[in-house]
Design goal:
Serine Threonine Protein Phosphatase 5, Tetratricopeptide repeat; mainly alpha; 23 helices
Length: about 425
């Protein structure tokens, strides 16, 4: 069975080796490389440096294949491995090079379960990433002896873990994200429902989802509204809890716990990351696929694998280059202001300033009070020598500064007015 899983994954994802760098891959590929070849190779393996697109994509392919094998070894489930291999929600781990911080912790957890004797070294490897420090807590429920190692791991990685979390809070969180209040349970439940339904049924596969965008800013009112994803989430949570309370502990119980613990850090109760990203579901989806493979009959499993594979096969070509990735994002999620915002950056970097203005205007039409969009339109108007319009949009931007960002935003606005600096905001 291992050979079948490996061959299937290698053949299915073989075309990804021809793809280039996209999104976060691009700036990392421009960073200086370590002069020491061994250190450079290690950094490439971890994803902190880049080699060539072909080598980096090949490493990503091999890692994903080993994760699928790990599912088979850890859970003795061929069908779960096959479902996971081609689940479209995993695309940012199975195809995207920069998804490695989510793939490697998944890999070491599964192989730690399959080979407990190797777990100390494996868990230490996975702890190079924040997720690899948090998620191993699931092993307490699988093998207490392995779980006993976790305090040592946390002690070793405490300083770096704290530094990484604080850095994310300072760079990605707004004031609203840091607030702890009962209403946040609505957002957390909605987020749970969103990931749950998308991991089971590939409704929408895209790099930039519109759901919960600007939840801490101008989209706050919408974020706290109860919608269909809230009811999906509430139903899912209730169903899982009911299963735990009424059915003796078994593989499905553990698999559902894996899903819940894995997705918990990304439920936006206290946000330290992007609101929604499919890569966050890579590790948790292992549990969901194990549970699904345990209850569905074989003919439905074949059907589901076919549906998953068809969707992913055509979507993965979006990773050919940055242009295709963003074009697909605008096509698959045209209501995502951020997709159009990034598209504006692509045109700006190509010095197509009029096109950039069109893209940012599209983003503004979707989210009219987005500070960075309004600011970029002002910069674009100034670049196109429309000073009066530039000052108008600058005033609009000033009126929509996100809470907690007043000082840094006003500094940029004053520099703009003084003519000393016209930054483009990503």
């Amino acid at each position: 069975m291992i050979e079948v899983i490996l061959l299937f994954v290698l053949l299915f994802f073989a075309k990804s080796i021809t793809y280039g760098y996209v999104s976060d891959d691009v700036p990392v590929s421009r960073l200086p490389k370590s002069p020491n070849k061994l250190k450079h190779a290690w950094q490439v393996f971890l994803g902190y440096e880049k080699s060539t697109p072909q080598i980096d994509h090949f490493i990503t392919l091999i890692m994903h294949a080993l994760v699928c094998v790990g599912i088979y070894l850890a859970f003795d489930s061929f069908w779960a491995a096959m479902l996971f291999a081609v689940n479209p929600i995993n695309n940012q781990g199975s195809v995207w090079i920069s998804g490695r911080p989510y793939v490697l912790p998944t890999l070491v957890l599964l192989w730690s379960m399959a080979f407990p004797v190797a777990s100390p070294a494996l868990l230490l490897l996975g702890s190079n990433y924040t997720l690899g420090v948090v998620m191993p807590v699931i092993l307490v429920f699988y093998q207490p002896l392995i779980g006993a190692l976790l305090p040592i791991l946390w002690l070793i990685k405490a300083k770096r873990f704290k530094s990484d979390v604080v850095n994310k809070i300072n760079t990605q969180s707004f004031a609203e994200d840091k607030k702890i209040k009962p209403e946040k349970l609505i957002i957390a439940t909605k987020t749970f429902g969103f990931y749950l339904i998308h991991a089971l049924i590939p409704i929408k596969t895209t790099f930039y989802h519109s759901f919960l965008q600007s939840a801490a800013g101008c989209g706050k009112e919408k974020a706290y509204k109860i919608d269909r994803f809230f009811w999906i989430g509430l139903t899912g949570i209730s169903g899982i809890m009911l299963y735990w309370m009424t059915v003796p502990w078994n593989t499905i119980s553990f698999a559902l716990l894996w899903w819940c613990i894995g997705i918990a850090p990304f439920l936006n109760f206290i946000r330290v990351q992007q609101e929604i990203a499919e890569r966050y579901a890579y590790l948790p989806t292992v549990g969901l696929m194990v549970a699904l493979a345990s209850v569905l009959p074989q003919h439905l499993l074949w059907l589901l694998i076919g549906i998953y594979a068809s969707k992913l096969w055509f979507y993965m070509d979006a990773y050919q280059n940055d242009f295709y990735l963003n074009e697909n994002a605008c096509l698959n999620s045209p209501d995502s202001w951020f997709a159009w915002h990034v598209r504006g950056h692509i045109r700006w970097n190509a010095q197509s300033y009029h096109e950039a203005l069109i893209m940012w205007t599209m983003a503004k039409n979707i989210s009219p009070r987005e500070f960075k969009v309004l600011f970029n339109i002002a910069v674009c108007c100034m670049a196109n020598k429309h000073k009066q319009e530039a000052l108008y949009f600058l005033e609009q931007a000033q009126a929509n500064i996100p809470e907690g960002q007043e000082e840094s935003s006003m500094k940029m606005i004053e520099e703009f007015k003084n003519g000393t600096h016209y930054p483009i905001l990503l």
